[in-house]
Structure prediction request, 176 residues.
Amino acid sequence: QVSVDNPALKDSVAGKVVLASEGDCFKAIELAGAGQPEWDRRGADARAAILERCADLLEEHQGRFIGILVREAGKTLDDGVAEVREAVDFCRYYAAEARAKFSAPEVMPGPTGETNELFLGGRGTFVCISPWNFPLAIFTGQVVAALAAGNAVVAKPAEQTPLVAFEAVKLFHAAR
Prediction:
C-alpha cells in the first residue's frame, strides 16, 4: 500500500492505495476489450441513460466528493463544488452527444438513386490519463466521452489523486 498525502496538511494521510502492476494493467486492457462490443451494442440511448445516472449520482454524493477533493487535492470548498458541477456537466453533455450522434445514421449527400449513410460506433478500448489539478472533472470528462461513443475505458488517475478517481469509478459502475 502507498499513502496518499493531503497536500494542505503534510502530516495528514488522505488515504492508501495499492498500485497496479504491469500485469494488472494488461489484464485490465484485456478485460475492457472483451467487454467493449457488448457496451457498444447497448446503443446510444442506453449508454446516455447510464451517463445521466452518473450525473445524478455525482449530485447525490456531492458532499462526499467535495470532501475527498479537499483532503486529497487541496481544493477549497468552492473549487470542490465547481469541480463536481463540471463533472456532472460532462456526464450530461456527453449523454446528449451520444443521443445526437450515435442513435441513427447520418444521411450523406450522394448521386441520384444512391443512398449514403454514416454510422458512428465504438472503436475499441481507450486509455484515459488524467491530471492532478482537476482530478474529478477531467477524469470524468475523458472517461464519459469515450463511454458515450461506445468504447471501453481503462483509466489511470494522477498519482497524487487516485482516491477521487476510485470513488468516481465505483459510482460509474453503480450507474449501470
Summary: Residues 77-102 form the longest helix (26 residues). The chain has a mean pLDDT of 95. The beta strands are 2-6, 9-17, 106-108, 116-118, 125-129, 152-156.
